[in-house]
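ok so i was messing around last nite and threw this chain in just to see what happens. nothing serious, just curious
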Amino acid sequence: ELNNLLSNTCLQNTLVTWIPVGWLLLACVIYIPCLRRNKTIRKRLSYLTLTKLTTTSLLISATITFLLYINMMKYKDRTVINFGKGLTLFSQVLSLVLQYVEFKKRVFTSGVNFIYWLLAIFENIVWLFAVEKQAEPDKLESVLVKISLSLKCALFLLFCFSERRSKKLNPYETASFLSRLTFFWMTSVMCRGCRQRNQDNFVPNLMENDTTSYIHLKCKASEKTMNLFSFMKNKTQHWFLVLWSMFWKELVLIFLIRGMYDILVFVNPILLFYFLPFLESKTPGPKWLGYVFAFTFFIVNIAMSMADQAVYWRSNRLGLNVKTAITDAIYRKLLKKRGQLLQDVSIANLLSVDTDMFHECIAFLWVLWSAPLQLIICCIILFVNFKCVAMYCLLIFLAYALVKYCLKKIGECHEEFLKEKDNRRCVMKEIMDKIKVIKLQALESIFLKKLQDIRIKELSFLQKRLLWDAVIATISEVLPFVVTLLMYMTLYFTQDTGNLSTENFFMMYMATSILETNFVMFPDVIADCTKTFKSYERIDQFLSSPDNDFTIDNCKDFALVLENASFLAAGLQNLNLTVTPGELIVICGKSGSGKSALLQSMIGCIPKTSGSFKRKLKVAYAPQQPWIMSGTIKENIIFGKMFNDKRFSHATKYSALQEDLNKLKESEETKVTDQV
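result:
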């Protein structure tokens, strides 16, 4: 039956041919617009691309030769063959054009062509099988089929490699499609890191989409788009939509890959349900069916593994990008805040604790819909096959009522924990700022007790939160095993073991395993989402706070003009000052008289209450606190930029630093620390 099916000419030139051709045409609908966005480069053809184009051209020649031969010999089914091979010829020409365009658009690898040639190989194998099974096989047709199969295998192998790597690009960008699927590109990165672990330059560059500069521009563009909607008044919705507009494509792709994984999870039990009777049958079935089962098991498990790893990798990458976008928004907001709020220690918690919660939550966000879906499907499978034990699945859903209560307590404890952490940072900052006064007045014990009391409260809320976390973990770990035990005990005591055949047992075992895995993950992810929501409220409260309304008028004749200007600081009332370009002014006064406050008011750190303030040039402010990094004097001067001897000499000359450098033994290579 299989021989007759595969030898059918109509099947070969319709369904079997349509699979690779259909894939290429459907993929091009999405792929070609993406290629058009890339910039075209002028570059000589590489050896790999030239080999691909040559091999594809030879394959096209072989297909044209076969079509001419079929029409010359006047085959009885030549109409169907012409239609099928004509589609194949069209797809091969389209693949040839895609290869050339991909090279011009600087695409290092092509998943579209990789999958197309893999499907084309299977099509050619069916064609070769049909030719060899003919009573009198045509020799020329057999030769052309074998040549086509060889060329397709060669093209498939060629598409397993990518173009020559560039040191400036990330290894993932230059990896082949197969290497990306299997994460083989990580091997070279890890080996290189092991060999060069004592060097700083072995870390590869980030992909452009993951860089802070790219995310910064994308975030600003999304904010501008969202601000066009005048009906948007709720700031929480506004920021949610900003993040959604930035990352919705990646999130949808993750959900699609996870959906494919969820479908494949239930393919294994279905295959086992049909495979075990075939294996236990007293009359041996067809051998080819066993090969089909084995091959299907292999492909399904390989696809599950690849999809699972792709979801984890893309989710973690998306979480880091969201964290970067929120961090960028916080820093941009700091530039618009009043000077008094710049020293707010709670900002450190926003940047260190709250933004990390987004990374941890988004990395497993897909569990929120994947786990309930798998739980419901498992319950349906158990109900269909074992009605008497399926009622125990209700215990899992009833347990969520207790989990919901625990999550509420976790959110409350986490919120109080963050408040106490902010208080502790405030006290620590106060101690560090006034350490000399505290030591002089012998107030160490008082401040130490105050700090310890806050720390005890902070630890108590942390302990309560971890206790509720432990309750959820206990429920999620123990309940699935209890449900499984009750199911098997019910089957034993109700004497319903007759329904427990081998295939039913394996299906029940795999369904309960899926139940256990998902019920363990689901409460943990909900707990992370609860904590993330509390962090989101804190971040949104900061981002929604009013900006500094500091405005500067233009001044044409003078560098800076103050006319009856008053600022929100003691002593800065009704100020009048005119500064011409190139003028050097010294401000004298007692300690605390407002010298630094005057300078801070000129850069907008202290709000203006009345009067006018005009400025012509840009202003640079050097505070009294030194900003020195641990390293050499030279590294502090160039500040991360490329060393330029001429600019370095000018900088040391105009800052009057050259005389001081001459007194040092190692000159500009003298080591300094941030404690200086």
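not much to say yet. The mean pLDDT is 80.
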